[in-house]
Batch of 2 targets.
Target 1
Amino acid sequence: MKAIKITVNGRTHEAGIDSRRTLLDFIRDTLNLTGTKKGCDHGQCGACTVIVNGRRINSCLSLALSHDGDEVTTVEGLAEGDELHPLQRAFIDHDAFQCGFCTPGQLCSAAALLGEFREGLPSAVSGSHTPFVEEIRERMSGNLCRCGAYNHIVDAIAAVAGEKR
Amino acid sequence: MNRPSSSIVGTPMDRVDGLAKVTGQACYAADYRGDRGAAEGYIVEAPAAPGRIVRLDVEAAEQAEGVIAVITHRNAPRQRPHGMPEDAGRFTQSHALLERDRVRYFGEPIALVVAETLEQARHAAKLVEVEIDCGEGTFNPFENAASAVKPDSLDGADQVDTDKGDFDTEYAGSDHRVDADYHTSAQHAAAMEPHTTVAEWDGDDLTVHMAIQIVSSAVEAFSNTLGIDKERIRIVSPFTGGGFGSKLGIHNEAVLAALAAKAVDRPVRVVQTRRNLFSNAPHRSRHRQKLQLGADKKGRLKAIRHASLAAMARDYPFAEAPASPTRASYAVPALRTTHRVVKADIPKVDSMRAPGEAIGTLTFETAIDELAEACGIDPVEFRLRNEPDADPQTGKPFADRRLAECLRQGAADFGWQGRQAPGSRRQGRKLLGCGMATAIRPNQLNPAEAEAHLTPDGRLRVRLDMTDIGTGSYTILTQIAADALSIAPDRVTVELGDSEFPETAGSGGSFGAASSGSAVYEACREMVEQLLSRLNEQGHTVNSVSIDGDRVMTGEASVPLATLIDAGGLTVTGEIDPDNYDSGEKNYSYGAQFAEVEVDADTGEIRLRRLLGVFDAGRILNQKTARSQLMGGMIFGIGGALLEQSLMDDRYGSFMNRDFAEYHIAVNRDVPDLQVRMLAGYSEKSNPLGSKGLGELGICGAGPAIANAVYEATGIRVRKFPIHMEDLLPSLPRS
């Protein structure tokens, strides 16, 4: 067991953990914050996406121990009290999910993506003529959705990103 | 017939479970945290099959840190033999595992390691040593076609084979013919939520928190597997993270969790790994479909033959019906369809979204495109010209059929310009092409019951064992109840996914909304009747009511509910009996899909540019969730046409691409602008709601529309699916 100190959604947790424990299993099973989902455990589906120090990562691919001192935001930390994050509101408005299992990851991914836009970070398709929706599609392609809510996810993100631009 | 009043049904109401889903509060099976902490189970898979376990050494695993037990065939609690009782059907028969030293298929569980934590269980599982004495296995149905048999029954079709008219004569007398074999790949449902079960025993009572589509048949499956009364089993499944057929029945983790929880006397959670799922959850078999089509000079169909060959998992009776759409689509004097299966030593084959139609329209609608071209007729016109006025197979009338409307509106909305010369449209390095196909899917109604409970303060609670697997059940049932009782939707609470609630047919076969919705409608109508009768007893002469807060509003008065209902509330039940809606007519949902693709002239890379579908699904219960389901179906269709392929190593019977890096489903950037159009309608003969199924309709026709577009872009007719760039590369047109 190794000692670790991680801040999740503004609350600092100190715990002794198995060095094999991923950040995902730490969040879900040590902290019992079950909003973050495990879809593949191999970094291939994005259901476990969380935001670490402002950047989105697949929490299943990262050992919890490597996040000593980090600040993590999960889907439970997106809203401010009863005030939903604009993306959460937009996902409901645009019906950007069906079964909802990939949704926490989609939301965390999208929230970090807004930050990437603000910072002007490029993607694989960035260019002077790249349509905005194509940028969103590319940047959200690490988050699989088997129900096929992609178009509505793009609509929801575009609506929020549009407001902020 | 009185049509239900409709002020809330049909509107694009937001999902009532939306808030729970965007805040991470929706509780899926793996999120369940009981009072007694669950131990973690980890599956040890057979590394070879079929065969006999000759050595199984679990000592090191048992001694590993944190391990509570290693469950194998030597110490597993007693079960009823796999497959018993024989007449129970695949969902409810015994799903026994770890029965003895036999291994049926590659990846079948040979042990479950139970430990305090997942890390401990996973580590210990690697310490299990096993040796299997392998026998000869059958894996590839096509190489073993000589041993094909006629299955006892088909999924979703009355007859295994059909034969109308004189196929040989009509085919021989045709002016234009298509004669080709088409291959579709094995596929996995690949729901985002892995199959998950948490089992806990209290004495002889079993409670199961699991991801499931049909609660009632799962209860029977546990009962038949474990040999305990159904009354001792409770299943809880408030949210399921996608099913697509793969969670219709219970699967391996469920049985293992129940056995292990019994053995170690504490709750056990088993979450299948993504890799597990490719062997321990079901798949759709690969199919070879022979199609022979003949038409006369005017482009009228004379003969259709559709012969399907697939694999059936040995000891698990499921056969898909790809010729289902063939039997119902076009007027034709001679129509012969057959389905054969080869019993194989492979993981379970079972329903995957739109069984029959998903791969049946993929092949048949491609063949129709080929025949239209052979006749020199535009494919839309060809379909309209062969539109039947009665069911082609049986001659029975159609309950309602608006396919021609779908075709015409689709062509207009898409801007269909008729078949262009293949390979003739080019934009820079891109070859462009358009294609279209029709969609058809049987519409069903199944028995269902529901309970409605109204309290004196004017709150309605509706309960039934229906599930919401992303379909929107919570939402549409709220809408249906709100309309039926004239009560505000925010005063309605729908509770689902619990075997203690009234029984329904669950989610599957596109029958969920109609069946469960009708039961809720009937329960609420009964509630209205009871309120009217009580009002009349009090001297109010009324024939309709609405509920506003804690009062019943009638035309003449406003009566406190508390004077009609005692403090405990009023509970009524309702049910739907499908026999009352069995008119003997053939009932389908319909659609027409139009696609445009671009194909890279140098690499053969295929990109979908746009896809438009026009659908007839009767009355739409919720514009928002219906659109989402149809759209999701269309995206499934993209996968079937261009991406999804589970590859088996035919030497060993093992699936090779067991993760999302190698089993490709559509990702966000694979999906362009999609257009979904729903015809306004009301299907009188389907159910009291006037709706028809649409959960699978969007897939049907989407794949062949794309495949036909690839043909127009390149002039290359690929008869195996998915179509990949390497299928096009050798024959791409020279620039």
Target 2
Amino acid sequence: MLKVEQVVKTYETVRAVDGLSFEARPGEIFGLIGPNGAGKSTTIRMIMNIIAPDSGTIRFDGERLSESDKARIGYLPEERGLYKKAKVGESLEYLAALKGMKLPEARASIDAWLERFGIADWRERKVSELSKGMGQKVQFIGAVAHKPSIVLFDEPFSGLDPVAQDELLAAMVELKEDGVTVLFSTHVMDHAEKICERILLVDRGREVLYGPLAEVKERHGRNAVQLEFDGDAAFVKDLPFVETVVAYPRWIEVELKEGSESDQLFRAVAGRLRVRRFEAVAPSLHKIFVRLVGRSPEEGNGAGAGEALRA
Amino acid sequence: MRKLALIVRHEFRMAAANKAFVILTVLGPFLILAVTVLPTFVANNPAAMSAGRPVAISSAVPGAAEALAAAYEGMGVEVSVTDDPRAAKAAVLDGSSAGYVVVEAGWPDAGRALFYSKTGVDATMYASTRAILGAFARELRIGAAGIDPALVRGILADAPFEVLKIGPEGNEESKTQDDFMEALFVSLSFVMVLYMTVLLYGQMIGASVVREKTSKTVEVMLSSVTSRELMFGKIFGLGLAGLLQYGVWISVALALVKLVGPAFDLAVPASISPENLGWLLVFFLLAFFLYSSAYAALGAASEDEHHLGQLAWPLLLFLIVPLVMVSSFIMSPDSALATALSIFPMTAPLVMLIRVLVSDPPAWQLALSVGAVFASVVGMALLASKIFRTGILMTGKRAKLGEILRWVAVR
């Protein structure tokens, strides 16, 4: 079990992480969620002992992380990087060897992963020849080939096409089923919603929400409706019983005021929009974030903590 | 230690298993020969300058052509006597002739002596010609004055003079001008080897660290190893490559001295001795570790290779200053300046190597010099690992040198 308690990290004047506490358990997928610059990467780097926290503790199974424990952890950094001139297979073997894995064992594991992602033919090719998506898969393999008991993925889905995202999601679920603690960070709420058991929602280095996803949704669950339609839904936000709206051209999520019922909305839109789907739902994480923080996660926090120091 | 060994092996392979490294290892000795010995060799040897092409001579003064021809042939330059100035000039122009000498009637008192050349700058050729003609003119004038030329020659002959070097055991060793030139060439070659390899390896380390940052591999590496392991792994890996390169070069040099020289009865310079090669290796290792730690730290602090170049100029200065002053150090190896710079750590490897090669510095100075550099290597490595730790994760900021030095204090 990974236990983070009251960690703080300040860069010059910016408090990147401000007293975060959470735990991630074996066999679960834990989501560290928040907009860009919220302090997710800094937190992961502190767990990885790449940078030291100003205060607070990070423990694995009750012990502070020592250098030898790094072999038990797999890490996919936000900024991907492999030695460009080296061959794919050699690079991965080198990374596995640094984690203490014996060569034959490492080869078998790497081959199995390459096979799984359908890039076994690229074993003898140079890293510089890989496309971006393939490079990310190779990097992912670099994080998991040594069979770690904890994996930390920093923004694992960024820059991947939907097919590759699904492949990665499936791989993460499989790791979890094998009893691995999977911790990943994302600013895309949809990803978190798909696979996380528990989440920590952070903003400006502080906790916004923490707990099992289902519980979080229930706690903040109010009347919400998701609508797919053809037509102009601009009028919806002005309806008297509507609290807030997340709007896209052909899809909206509407949160209703307390005491209102979803069929009020149904009657209001009937005839004015061609409704294709109408579903009463618990609000999305996105929605919850917007309500608690007062702005969309895509806006970032503007503090730029991650700019001067890549952290 | 196991991780360090893995990084060392990886970095060694990245450095040594490429064509550039193999070519440099094989061609290195020739390159050094080319930049040090060859230009001087050519400058002192008109035969090499004329490149087998004849010099045409046309003389209206009896005896001048013969005197020139005899002297030229003594230097290994071919001669052709001609009466056709147009053809001779054409031959100079098309390059088939190295030059064309004309001695006009009445020379040296009324007529002129002319040297036609294609470039006008082949100084060695025309300086030799002027000397030969000058000597001939003196003989003519002495003859004209009614004095026996043999008498004058006897009066002007050089008086005997010898230079003796007293060895450590009081033994005496005769030194000639050639010995000095030889010592100059060997020292110059050794110093060039040291300078070029230290600079090359330093920059390779710096560039390799910068690449670690720009290719973003650093975080993946730091998830397995400490920044200290990463830095020293790089330094030792490249150091091993450097050692391999020196091993090849020194073996070639020793083979030249011990086997090839005696077998073909070649005069191999006495200064290429196992002892001197040993000193070269010692000072390479010291300088390598000193400069590569510094370059590793600056590489970690740099945004890109351009930025590294800006940050590294003070280092470059310490290497270039001794190189610029190398001839003055060779001529007076025990001057106060040479002694001081042979103990100051940043310049000590280059300057002390020169002193060891051409002189016999006191043992305490040698020990102090090696000790000072060694202590600086340790200090520099500690300093560098601190700068490296902070710098390697820093991006998006072009730090100044002063700022970088403050990172040493970062907890």
